[in-house]
Amino acid sequence: MSEARTRLAPSPTGALHLGNARTFLINWVMAKQRGWRVVLRIEDLDTPRTKAGADLLAIDDLRWLQMDWDAGPYYQSDDLTPYHDALRRLASAGLIYPCTATRKEVLEAASAPHDDVHELHYPNIHRPTHPTPFEFAPVRDGQTAYRLWVPDETIAYTDEVAGAVSMNVQQQVGDFVVAAKSGLPAYQLAVVVDDARQGVTHIVRGDDLLRSTGRQLLIYEMLGLEPVPSYAHLPLVVGEDGRRLAKRHGDTRVAMYRELGAPAERVIGLLASWSGCGERRAMSGGEFVERFDLAKLPREPVTFTEDDHAWLVHG
Ligand code: GLU
Question: Which atom of ligand 1 lies at the shortest distance from residue 212's CA?
Answer without folding.
Answer: 9
